[in-house]
Each structure stands twice: as C-alpha cells, then as structure tokens.
Amino acid sequence: MTSVLETTAAVTARAPAKVNLELGVGPLRDDGYHTLSTVYQAVGVHDDVTAAIADEWGVSVRGRDAELVPTDESNLALRAARLLAERAGDVEPVHLTIHKGIPVAGGMAGGSADAAAALIACDALWGSGLGKDELEPLAAQLGADVPFLLHGGTAVGSGRGELISPVLARGTYHWVFVPTDSEGLSTPQVYRTFDELNAAREIDEPRPSPDMMAALRNGDAEALAAVLSNDLQPAAILLQPRIDEIIESAMGFGALAAIVSGSGPTVALLADGQEGAIDLSVALAASRTAEDILRASGPVAGAHVIPAPRLT
Ligand code: ATP
C-alpha cells in the first residue's frame, strides 16, 4: 500500500519547448546582452522534471541527449530548485529527475524548460505556494526564456526576452523540427557572429511586427509563414551551412516556411495542417534529408504539474 508520505514526497512537472516566430535582435547593451524583440510559441515537445524529497541535493537525467546535460551544480533545473529554496526558506533538499524530450543545445530552450518545470514542481512539493506570477522574477534570473516557458502559449518577449506579454493567437499551428548537430554552434558563438556580420551598420531597436500580430489574430498559417523571421539566421547558417540545405529541401517538399529556431541549429518547418506535417516528415526521411525529425503543434500550455512521472 502507498503511504501518504510516498504520495506527497514527489511531484512531476512538464514544460514545453519553444520556437521563435520572430526574433529581432537589437543593439548590444552595456551588460553584454542584446535587446530582443521576439514572439515565442510553446510547442508540444516536452521535458518532465520530477522533484523528490531526498537526503541531499542532486539531479539525474534520462531520455533524449541525456549524456549532454550536466549533472553538477550548473544544471539549470538544480539551479532553479536552489533559487526557489532560498526564496521559500526552510525546505528539505530535493533530488530532481529530468526526462528529456527536447533536443539539447538545439535552440528550443530545453535547459530553460527544465528550469521552469523545476520551479513549478518544487513550488508544489514544498507547498511554498508562490504560483507563476511570483515565480516569474526567479525565472528571469535563471535565463531569458524561462519566464515564457512558465506561461506558455504565444507571447511577445522584450528586454532580453524575459519580459513577457501574451499575444492573441487563434488556431493551432503544425510544426516539423529537424535538429542537427550542434557542434560549433553555441548561442554565444551565434551572437558573436551576428555582431561581426552587422559591425558596419547601425542596428535599430527591434519591435514586434504588426503583420505577425495580424496573422496570429486571424489564425492564418499561410500569412504567418510569410512573416516568420529570425535575425540570427544568417549567422547560424554561416556557422553551419547544413541548415541551408535542410531549409531548401523542406521548401521543395511543401513546407509553408522554414526558419532557424532561436540561435539554432534546429530548423523549424511550418506545415500546411497536420497532414501536411506528416507528408513533410515522410518526405524528409525518405529523401534522407534528415534522420531525426520531431512533429509537434503549438501553442501549448506552459510548465504545469502532471499526475505521474513517465516510466521510460
Ligand atoms: P539556449 O537557446 O537557451 O542557449 P538551447 O535550447 O540552444 O538553449 P539547451 O538545451 O538549453 O540549449 O542547452 C544549452 C546548454 O545548457 C547545454 O549545452 C548544457 O550544457 C546546458 N544545460 C544546463 N542545464 C541543462 C538542462 N537541464 N538541460 C539541458 N541543457 C542544460
């Protein structure tokens, strides 16, 4: 029989990946970050984080790319749990078990998703009761994408991306993601290359585009396809030319649009409905353009408690 202690001694939270529908990069700020104007969408590729009361703090990682994720104090989920513990006061240590479904270092914010899930799981486990609004400042300290992954949906991000306002978005969008080898393409390298490519010109403050807002308001995938944009894309392609080959093939196979996700290297393909997404992924696999293909729709909810951990 399960005791009450066992049923309350662990909580699992699930957090989604993100795709940037628009990523406008502005001037470099004095603190070394760029001003961003981005439109995020949360998509149905998930990581689950189980927080369990333990004798000592720790983290273990299972699932996709698990071997690439650090299990020391640099792990973002563990940092999130420790930050919440400082805020909440007298709490017991936790062991976190991360089940990864989001590609690591793919530009889909997997580490940030784990941080968001850890905040939600630990808040429930410890009964600190902060809720998303009070967790948001902690999320922003952990990383620019973390506040969005707490809330999910579709939202504009400003500042470094951490200042979130929800966007009225109708409909469901169907995506195919092609993760590629991230070697030679870290987020700081992509930004450095962006700076080099733009050294000779004045960079304006970025703003969300009215056409993007209209496409989302109307739930129009074709109109959205026409306005997807990512200022980091030229830098990512320069560092990893294979991205361009995938984009070209996918457009030939009927993708409505193809764009680098965040700082890459994952390529995000907007498909013409669910069937379009299936056809596109079959064509990419059959032509051997890509071996690793993920299909997901968005928008989906942000980090939330789920009933039970995944067993595999
Ligand atoms: P970003 O665009 O925010 O830089 P990303 O989506 O490209 O992120 P992540 O999967 O978040 O990439 O991983 C970036 C790096 O963060 C990894 O190389 C890894 O070393 C480190 N990291 C720390 N904690 C985690 C975690 N819980 N999950 C994944 N990566 C983590």
UniProtKB/TrEMBL annotation:
Sequence positions that bind ATP: 103-113
Pfam families in the record: GHMP_kinases_C, GHMP_kinases_N
UniProt KW keywords: ATP-binding, Isoprene biosynthesis, Kinase, Nucleotide-binding, Transferase
Pathway recorded for this protein: Isoprenoid biosynthesis; isopentenyl diphosphate biosynthesis via DXP pathway; isopentenyl diphosphate from 1-deoxy-D-xylulose 5-phosphate: step 3/6
Enzyme type, top EC level: transferase
One of the protein's GO biological processes: terpenoid biosynthetic process
Domain GHMP kinase C-terminal span(s) in chain numbering: 212-278
Gene Ontology molecular function: any one: ATP binding
Domain GHMP kinase N-terminal: 75-153
Coiled-coil stretches: none
UniProt catalytic activity: 4-CDP-2-C-methyl-D-erythritol + ATP = 4-CDP-2-C-methyl-D-erythritol 2-phosphate + ADP + H(+)
EC numbers, comma separated: 2.7.1.148
Active site: 18, 145
Gene3D superfamilies (UniProt xref): 3.30.230.10, GHMP kinase, C-terminal domain (3.30.70.890)
Function: Catalyzes the phosphorylation of the position 2 hydroxy group of 4-diphosphocytidyl-2C-methyl-D-erythritol.
UniProt record similarity statement: Belongs to the GHMP kinase family. IspE subfamily.
Protein name per its UniProtKB record: 4-diphosphocytidyl-2-C-methyl-D-erythritol kinase
Gene: ispE
